[in-house]
Amino acid sequence: MHQYEKAFLNGILDFVNDAVTCVNREGVVIFWNRAAEHMYGIPKEQIIGKRIGEFFQKGSLMLYQVMETGCPVFQVYHTPQPDTHVLINATPIFNDSSELIGAISVEQNITSTVKLSEDLFQSPGKQNPKISIPFIVQRSAQMKQTVDYLTQTAKLNVPILFLGETGVGKQALAYFLHSLGSAGDPFLTLNCEALPPGLLDAELFGYQEDFLNVHRPDMQSGERQGKLDHAQNGILYIKNIHAMPLPTQVRLANAIRDRRFFRVGGMKPISFTCRILASSHPNLMNHIKDDTFSKELYYTFHLVSIPALKDRIEDIPELGIHFLEDLSVKLGKPIPRLSTNVIAALATYEWPGNLHEFKNVMERLMLQAKETDITLEHLPESLRLITLSEFFEESKQLTDLSEEMERKMIGEALKRTNGNKANAARLLGISRGSLYYKMKLYNMS
């Protein structure tokens, strides 16, 4: 590597917030970035050129494990020091000739996230008393900004279009806006994916006798009101507005702009006094590019993007307490105490199902917990963190021994297996990566 390339690489690795450790195939540290120095309090001058095992026994075992197997490991949870929580990713490194030359571990410090979550989960009385709807938790800056903005729009009665993934709480925010108005005002919903296109117009605007005779001859003649009539002075929440037919979109845009609408088949203008709230997935702009969503309707709305749950992890503890308290009352059971491992798992999971998935997990914990403590075993398989201790559980009996005894046991195992390292590792109850590490550490051929 050229000198300037090395300088750029060092600059990049020192710039990242995660602790990065690079070792050669013998386990000697060849790079230790600033984040690692800060996390462990070990200057690079003190650790570079030394075996990683002299400083971190379990961490070194992981690096030898990935070198021995050739397989990377991801998101392994570890507490290397008291009150320090990290997620470790490690991978072997090969040269252009596919020869193993070492390994890299990257440790993400999640201490602040875990501590904040732990404090909040263990102090359920510190919730925000102003919010009565569980999904509207605003400890995260994004949600606080969103709720503040929506509160201001309530004074203007402007139409709002919520953009966000399924389950992020779009309808909960619509209910929140309704709660800011008169309690007696109607709140109606219309799901554009639940009705065939031919009837969506009639459901929204109502219809006159001519339309009725053609489409529903079994019904009595006369004028029928739609959602816009029934929601007068209140709120009409239109779900999945991206599925609304283009002609209906244009009619709705005109109605919002002119503050009046016409029934299907009718000619008499009807006063438009309700507030329109709508929701769609975050990729609505793609429908505009495909000419399947009206630009006119799109720019009629004030757009509000709702962050996914994975992007508002500060809200997770309070959301959890809301759900657990509610379930505690319904089930007549005390609120369980969540272990630190469980809190770390909840705070670092991606939550693809967002709030719906999170609520289901809270229900599962309450139903499964027979004691007051919740551990990793109570979580669904997809949420469970692999801890570094579990990763190397099989080496526990060996690591508790003195160096002299370890040497003796390894030597005896190799003799009994005629030097077969795989069989010797099984005999000792450890992984082959652990055995290789110990042999290299003690210079055993």
TrEMBL record:
SMART domains: PAS
Domain (PAS) ranges: 5-57
Keyword DNA-binding part of the UniProt annotation: no
Domain Sigma-54 factor interaction: 136-367
Record flagged with keyword Zinc: no
Alphabetical keyword list: ATP-binding, Nucleotide-binding, Transcription, Transcription regulation
InterPro entries: AAA_lid_NorR, Homeodomain-like_sf, HTH_Fis, P-loop_NTPase, PAS, PAS-like_dom_sf, Sigma_54_int, Sigma_54_int_dom_ATP-bd_1
First and last residue of the signal peptide: none
Protein name: Sigma 54-interacting transcriptional regulator
Species of the source: Fodinisporobacter ferrooxydans
